[in-house]
Amino acid sequence: MTTNSGTGLWVEALESGYGESMVVRRASLHIPPGQVVCLMGRNGVGKTTLLRTVMGLIKPRSGRILYNGRDLTRSAPAVRAKSGIGYVPQGRDIFPQLTVEANLLLGLEAASPDIRKDGIPASIFEQFPVLRDMLHRKGGELSGGQQQQLAIGRALISRPQLLVLDEPMEGIQPSIVMDIERVIESVKAARTTSVLLVEQSLAFATSIADYFYVLDKGTVVAEGNSGTLNGDMMRKHLAV
Ligand SMILES: Nc1ncnc2c1ncn2[C@@H]1O[C@H](COP(=O)(O)OP(=O)(O)OP(=O)(O)O)[C@@H](O)[C@H]1O
C-alpha cells in the first residue's frame, strides 16, 4: 500500500460495512487543502457510509485514513474533530431541546483553547443571520432549513481545516438552499478550509467542485476535475 504523508485527507483502499454486508469497497480519495471535492453517486451506493467511516463512526474493515500525514484510521471521532475535521451529517443532527446558542457552543468543544476563549464568533451570524435572531429558541423549534444552517454553523465555529458535508441541501426549501450554497462558496473563496461534499445536484457540484469522485457499489468508478463531469458520465453512473 502506498504511504501518503502529504497534506490533506487521504482515504486509501477503505472498506467498511454493516455486519456481513460490505458497503464501501476499496475506495480511495484525496481532499487537498483548500479544495472542494464532491462525492457523487446514486442513492444507496455507500456515500454516507464512507463519510461515517472517515469520521470514525463506523470501524473500517481495511484501508487507511490519513490526515495531514497522521494516521487516523483507528482513532475516536473526537480525535478527528480535534484534528480539524468538522462534520455535518445527513439529516441535520442538532440537539432539539437545547437553544441555538447552546448548540453553537457545543461546536466550540472541538476548537483549540485560543478559539474557544472568544466564544461564538460574529462571522457565524454574518453567514447565518437567522441564527442570531433565533439564538435563544430551542433547536427543535427551527425549520428544517434553519436547523441545517445551525448544523453547518456549529461545524464552522471551530474553524475546521476540512468540512465534511453530507447532502446539506437535501429536503431544504429553495430559498435556504441558496443561503447554504452561498456559505459553501464563501468557505471555498477563503481557501483556508477544504470541503468534502456529498451532493446530488450536478449543477451545484459542477459550479463548486475543484474535483469529483463518483461512487458506485462502494467503489470509485470515476473521478476528475469538475470540467469533466458531463452528460455521458451522468447517464452512465448517476442516472437512476
Ligand atoms: N445502519 C445500517 N445498517 C445496515 N445497512 C445499512 C445501514 N446504513 C446504511 N445501510 C445500507 O448501506 C448501503 C449504503 O447506504 P448509504 O446510506 O451509505 O448510501 P448513500 O450513497 O449515502 O445513499 P443516500 O444517498 O440514499 O444517502 C445501503 O444498501 C443501505 O441500505
Automatic annotation (TrEMBL):
The keyword Amino-acid biosynthesis does not apply. InterPro entries: AAA+_ATPase, ABC_transporter-like_ATP-bd, ABC_transptr_urea_ATP-bd_UrtE, BCAA_Transport_ATP-bd_LivF, P-loop_NTPase. Pfam families: ABC_tran. One of its GO terms (molecular function) is ATP binding. The keyword Iron does not apply. Residues 9-240 form the ABC transporter domain. SUPFAM superfamilies: P-loop containing nucleoside triphosphate hydrolases. Keywords: Amino-acid transport, ATP-binding, Nucleotide-binding, Transport. NCBIfam families: urea_trans_UrtE (TIGR03410). Belongs to the ABC transporter superfamily. This is Urea ABC transporter ATP-binding subunit UrtE.
